[in-house]
Amino acid sequence: MAAPTDTKSRIQDIDINVKSRKRTTGIVGLNLLLDGGFPPGTLVMIYGTPLSGVDLAAQQFWKAEGGEEGTFFVNDGDVEVGMIDASELHPEMYLPQMAGGRIVVDSLSTIVLKYGIDGALKFLRLAREEMKTRGGNLLGIVYTGIHSPMEMTKLMRAADVVIEFKTTIQQSEIERTLCVHKIRNAAAPQRLLPFIITDKGIEASTTSRVV
């Protein structure tokens, strides 16, 4: 009979769709570049200078539309309403306080400086298991210029998605671009994504074709 086959097919379709659903980054142009957003259950590393916009990108991810709950840990900056002051917390104490699917750590750099690269990597391993279990995403900020090349390499290897925020000066203009260097189990985009910083946050270009 046709009914059992249709039912089975319908259940399989639901499972596939739920598994593949991506979480918005909070930046429209970056969503397009990543074909919908961050894959669920992954660790995201964004890195750049303190003036490159990484902090704004982290807040936009945390506050992204949809009403989904999230947790923002601050261990080296100003703690705003709704954020958690993690300056006195060991990173393993972050895990029981994580709520929702949008987890931000500002910053992974501070964890490395306070607990060493091995302590940071252990935290990331535990966090990955937690994100896989709940289908969430943890976004960690890394600031350039304060880590050794080996530490940066180890952090990049531990992350599932790696995005660089680049700032260059061309004559009298500042050019800002995003570069997605790594997406685990997928091909990274082959182009840079221009963006600007406005009073509302980061706005990325959506006009050029994504390759």
Condensed summary:
By secondary structure, this protein is α/β, with parallel strands linked by helices. It is 34% helix and 27% strand. α4 runs parallel beside α5 (149-158).
Key traits:
nine-stranded mixed sheet, alpha/beta, 211 residues, Rossmann fold
Report on the architecture of this protein.
The protein is an alpha/beta fold. It has one domain: 3-Layer(aba) Sandwich (Rossmann fold), CATH 3.40.50.300. It has helices at 2-20, 28-33, 54-62, 108-134, 149-158; strands at residues 42-48, 70-74, 84-85, 102-106, 137-143, 161-170, 173-183, 193-198, 201-204. It has a nine-stranded mixed beta sheet, with helices on both faces. Helix 4 links the parallel strand 4 (102-106) and strand 5. Helix 4 (108-134) runs parallel beside helix 5. The protein is globular and about 45 Å long. Residues 1-19 have low confidence and may be disordered.
Helix-strand blueprint:
Elements: H1 2-20, H2 28-33, E1 42-48, H3 54-62, E2 70-74, E3 84-85, E4 102-106, H4 108-134, E5 137-143, H5 149-158, E6 161-170, E7 173-183, E8 193-198, E9 201-204
Parallel strand pairs: 1-5, 1-6, 2-3, 2-4, 4-5
Antiparallel strand pairs: 6-7, 7-8, 8-9
The pLDDT mean sits at 89
Number of helices: 5
Spans of 5+ residues with little confidence (pLDDT < 50)? 1-19
Main sheet properties: 9 strands, mixed
Beta-strand residue fraction: 25-35%
| Count of domain modules | 1
DSSP E strands, number: 9
Global structural class: alpha/beta
With strands numbered from the N-terminus, the spatial order across the biggest sheet is: 3-2-4-5-1-6-7-8-9
Shape: globular
**Separation, N- and C-terminal Cα atoms:** 45 Å
CATH H-level homologous superfamily name? P-loop containing nucleotide triphosphate hydrolases
What's the order of the H and E elements?
HHEHEEEHEHEEEE
Radius of gyration, in angstroms, nearest whole number? 18 Å
CATH architecture: 3-Layer(aba) Sandwich
- Estimate percent helicity: 25-40%
- Name of the CATH first level: Alpha Beta
CATH fold-level assignment = Rossmann fold
